[in-house]
Design brief:
four-stranded antiparallel β-sheet; eight-stranded mixed β-sheet; single chain; 17 strands; 2 domains; alpha+beta
Length: 360
């Protein structure tokens, strides 16, 4: 009898083990007020480039690390911009649109930009050599578009309007002023729920302007000391570039840009329509067919040699993210059911042995 039950136990254990072998279990560029540190953190940017009209729409969803409760920042543009509010919904829509494909497979048997400063008081009259082209409240910002004769004049205007303006920021602004670029000064304050943290997220603002070549204001003052103070070790710049073809970005021949293409491909007419609605732009916004190039850049905290300019890429092949592979195994109820089926299959043989033993 002992041998019989040993045989039955061995057969059952073997069947159970076989079940589990078949189905293994899952295992710009901000500036500080009176010594308050401010640096750019992660940023996501949407650029729409209409090559026929030489018109660029620049929509930025920026975040900052700062010790200040309120601060300002400056955004340069080659020509006088049009400012308007832009919907935040476009950012998660694009993120979803370009996410990697998820492939579910059975688990194998042998189981991986500009810059500024803070203020709380009302702005005063502009300095003589600075012309205020626009002033408006937009997307929660108090905005002023400035045209300055010199970096020194811009510094005086900013100081009079209680913007912090360091020598580093003046050096940053100098080449823009000399080239006749316009400077949009914006002021932002921490929300109540951000007061205890070092993070600030600004609302999405659309800046539209004429330009010969699409551009992202990549240059910053030297914020390495401020970044160390705020323990800002890394950040990600994501750029969704929408145009009539695939584009590429370049700093200088000597200093290649650290950004890479994460996704590239044509969008459907329905994608374009939805994005325009999210961005609060009319259907006539060019181009009529959109090709999306998504860039990802670790954006190191160091002084860049130039701004980032875009041009049509010689390579027009589509790019997709590597798919995410998820290994799955059957659930435990299914495992048990399979084991019971194996035992049921062995039952006639076991019953025969039992009867022979009883007669025996």
């Amino acid at each position: 009898m002992r041998n019989l039950f040993g045989s039955i136990l061995a057969m059952f254990t073997g069947s159970l083990a076989a079940c589990f072998l078949l189905n293994p279990a899952d295992a710009c560029c901000p500036a500080p007020r009176s010594g308050k540190a401010v640096v750019n953190a992660d940023q996501t940017v949407i650029i729409i480039w209409d090559a026929a009209k030489k018109l660029q729409h620049f929509i930025r969803q920026a975040s900052f690390k700062t010790e200040a409760d309120d601060f300002g920042f400056l955004v340069p543009s080659p020509t006088e911009p049009e400012l308007d509010e832009s919907g935040n919904e476009a950012f998660p829509y694009l993120l979803k649109l370009t996410e990697p494909e998820v492939k579910t497979v059975p688990r194998p048997r042998n189981v991986g930009c500009g810059c500024g400063a803070p203020t709380k008081s009302k702005a005063k009259d502009a300095a003589p050599q600075v012309r205020v082209l626009q002033e408006k409240l937009v997307a929660g910002f108090k905005a002023a578009v400035l045209e300055a004769k010199s970096a020194k004049a811009l510094a005086e205007w900013l100081k009079e309007h209680e913007y912090a303006f360091s020598p580093e920021v003046e050096a940053w602004a100098k080449p823009y002023v000399e080239q006749g670029w316009k400077i949009t000064a914006l002021k932002v304050a921490k929300r109540t729920d951000e007061k205890e943290s070092k993070g600030v997220t600004a609302s999405a603002l659309r800046i539209s302007f004429k330009t010969d070549n699409p551009v992202f204001p990549y240059r910053e003052p030297d914020y390495r000391t401020a970044a160390d103070k705020l323990e800002a070790r890394s950040r990600l710049l994501r750029i969704y570039f929408l145009a009539d073809a695939r584009y590429e970005g370049e700093l200088t021949k000597e200093s290649p840009w650290t950004g890479t293409v994460a996704w590239a491909g044509k969008l459907t007419a329905e994608n374009r329509k939805t994005l325009l609605e999210h961005l609060k732009l009319p259907e006539t916004t060019g181009p009529q067919e959109w090709y999306l190039t998504e860039f990802e850049d670790p954006w190191p905290y160091k002084v860049a040699p130039s701004d980032l300019f875009f041009s049509r890429s010689a390579t027009q092949t589509d790019v997709r993210r590597q798919p995410i592979v998820r290994y799955v195994s059957t659930t435990y109820p299914t495992d048990i059911a399979l084991c019971m089926m194996a035992v049921a299959a062995l039952a006639p043989s076991l019953a025969g042995r039992w009867r022979r033993w009883r007669r025996g």
